[in-house]
Design a protein that fits this description.
By secondary structure, this protein is of the alpha+beta class. The protein folds into two domains: 189 residues, Creatine Amidinohydrolase; 59 residues, Arc Repressor Mutant, subunit A (Orthogonal Bundle), CATH 1.10.10. Helix content is 28%, strand content 23%. The protein contains six helices and 13 strands. Strands 3-6-12-13 form a four-stranded antiparallel β-sheet, covered by helices on one side. The longest helix is centred in the N-terminal third of the chain and has 19 residues. The radius of gyration is 23 Å and the shape is globular. The protein starts with 7 loop residues before the first strand and ends with a helix. This is Peptidase M24 domain-containing protein. It comes from Stentor coeruleus. Belongs to the peptidase M24 family. InterPro entries: Creatinase/aminopeptidase-like, PA2G4/ARX1, Pept_M24, WH-like_DNA-bd_sf, WH_DNA-bd_sf.
Length: 289
């Protein structure tokens, strides 16, 4: 694939250390800069996505509902003349678990919704926001996916030796998290194995989705930790607002007030208990004298 000047690009990546997951995603236009800013729908959709994720980060506080974010998303997308993308979920993550039961939905529909709950201390999320200039209803494309995940609750005695060899390697190297066919040296055996595993529901596949040809989609993804000292953005939002000029703005007063809340980028400093004890003892001595 060759990128052209002014193409809208989405980049996403993730890592894990001993099963603890962090991910990051950003959108940008090739060639965009403060000296040569982008205008029009591309600027609108990127600003909408950035505003949505900035608002979400400030709403992810203990006691707030996950649907507080979904409602804010809808207002922001409307202000920028866009739509939130259907089917996009932000999951709570735990060790070796990338798709926990608690989740935030970008756009609620008649047949797409999640259970409502309140955020709590010591939760971690992969916060994913996608905004479209189109209907926000991506469709499966003709491109073959290369990303899969093991279905832990399904077992089956595979017939082909190549499939059994492939599944053994999956269980050893990728027992819980997503993997790509590019991770395997023997591509032929991997494709044979994937085919039989999918046939018997041993793997989940992640199809390649896209909006209509002329529609634009912008995405931002960050890792968020809700801690006792505050909400921490573990992977930053990468965005240069000066490189994108839009005539649209947020109009909802509630969203405006939310965006004024300062965002903590690191853990709050811990109180020095030792110094506090020393000061207390010194004060007691003064009082005695």
């Amino acid at each position: 694939m060759v990128l052209n000047h002014h193409d809208l690009v989405k980049v996403e990546m993730g890592v894990h250390v001993d099963g603890y997951i962090a991910a990051i995603g950003t959108s940008f236009v090739v060639g965009a800069s403060p000296t040569e800013p982008i205008t029009g729908p591309k600027a609108d959709v990127i600003h909408a996505a950035n505003t949505a994720i900035q608002t979400a980060l400030r709403l992810m506080r203990p006691g707030n509902s996950n649907y507080t974010l979904t409602e804010a998303y809808s207002k922001i997308a409307t202000d920028y003349g866009c739509n939130m993308v259907e089917g996009v979920l932000s999951h709570e993550v735990k060790q070796h678990v990338i798709d926990g039961n608690k989740s935030i939905i970008c756009k609620e529909t008649f047949d797409q919704h999640v259970e409502e709950y309140d955020f709590a201390v010591n939760q971690a999320y992969l916060l994913d926001v996608m905004v479209s200039t189109g209907e926000g209803k991506p469709r499966e494309t003709e491109f073959r996916t290369t990303v899969f995940q093991r279905a832990l609750d399904v077992t089956y005695n595979l017939k082909l030796k190549a499939s059994r060899t492939f599944l053994t390697e999956v269980n050893r190297r990728f027992p819980t998290l997503l993997f790509s066919l590019n991770n395997f040296d023997d591509q032929r055996n991997a494709r044979l194995g994937v085919s039989e595993c999918l046939k018997h529901n041993i793997l989940y596949s992640f199809p390649v989705l896209a909006e209509r040809p002329n529609d634009l989609v912008a995405q931002f993804k960050v890792t968020v930790l809700i801690l006792e000292n505050g909400t921490i953005v573990a992977t930053p939002v990468i965005f240069t607002p000066e490189a994108y000029k839009t005539e649209r703005n947020v109009t909802d007063e509630g969203v405006k007030k939310t965006l004024e809340i300062p965002m903590q980028t690191g853990p709050a400093p811990k109180k020095d208990k030792k110094n506090k004890k020393k000061k207390t003892k010194a004060q007691e001595k003064k009082q005695d004298s």
